[in-house]
Amino acid sequence: MALETYLKKIVEAGASDLHLKVGRPPLMRSRGDLIPINGMESVTQETMKKEIFSITTPAQQEKLEKEKELDFSFQIEGLARFRGNVFYQRGLLSSVFRMIPTKIPSVEDLNLPPVLLELVARPQGLFLVTGPTGSGKTTTLAALVQFVNENFPKHIITIEDPIEFAYQDSKSSIDQREVGSDTLSFDQALRRALRQDPDVILMGELRDKESISTAITAAETGHLVLGTLHTNDAKQSISRILDSFSGDAQTQIRIQLAATLVCVVSQRLIKKMDGKGRIAAVEIMINTPSVRKAIEENKIGQITKFMEESASFYKMQTFNQALFNLVKNKHISSEEAFAISENPNDLKIQFQTQGISFTSGGKELPPGLAG
Question: Based on CB atoms within 10 Å of each CB, which residue in 221, 326, 344, 367 is the most buried?
Answer without folding.
Answer: 326
